[in-house]
């Protein structure tokens, strides 16, 4: 989807154009943040060498009968490169489902995003050089959710951020973890949005 392509390509003005003025985005490293602040943080991170990219695998979009609201669910992989001790590099990858909450601007007729959220389903850490494997504190890593464990572990240790630990996970976690509870809550919010309810996401 163009949102991720524009972000990864540093097309900031084009990226801004897809959002309503009061739109919000959730990420593991920002939590709930206004889209303008997310763009500023992304710009600052890239200027410091933070390297986050996305691979898009497919998407579906549901539109309500009145054609005033829609929800896009997009399968994607977040991949971020990290440098460890002795210059060892590895890519943390989290398979996600992005969720875009859209509504039509009544004055212009344009569709714009109100919210962007994610389901974090599973992740892994891949050494760039198979002969040089980074050392991970196994016990410390266990505190992070399984859907974005290594991504969160590496972000906290290299970016100076506090990662949000209760973001929506996979259906297999339903009822057993905070991430499973947030999984069910996000699906409820999707339904409420499509039903035309006022939803604070």
TrEMBL record:
Pfam families: SnoaL_4. Residues 7-114 form the SnoaL-like domain. This is SnoaL-like domain-containing protein.
């Amino acid at each position: 989807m163009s949102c991720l392509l524009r972000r990864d390509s540093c097309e900031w003005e084009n990226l801004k154009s897809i959002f309503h003025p009061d739109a919000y985005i959730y990420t593991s490293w920002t939590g709930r943040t206004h889209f303008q602040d997310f763009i500023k943080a992304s710009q600052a991170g890239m200027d410091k060498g933070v390297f986050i990219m996305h691979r898009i695998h497919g998407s579906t979009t549901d539109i309500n009968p009145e054609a005033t609201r829609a929800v896009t669910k997009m399968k994607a992989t977040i991949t971020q490169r990290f440098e460890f001790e002795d210059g060892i590099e590895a890519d943390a990858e989290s398979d996600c489902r992005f969720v875009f909450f859209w509504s039509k601007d009544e004055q212009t007729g344009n569709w714009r995003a109100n919210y962007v959220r994610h389901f974090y389903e599973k992740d892994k850490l891949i050494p760039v050089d198979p002969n040089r494997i980074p050392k991970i504190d196994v016990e410390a890593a266990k505190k992070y959710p399984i859907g974005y464990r290594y991504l969160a572990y590496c972000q906290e240790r290299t970016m100076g951020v506090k990662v949000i630990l209760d973001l929506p996970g996979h259906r297999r976690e339903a009822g057993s973890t905070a991430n499973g509870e947030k999984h069910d809550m996000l699906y409820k919010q999707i339904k409420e949005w499509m039903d035309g309810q006022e939803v604070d996401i």
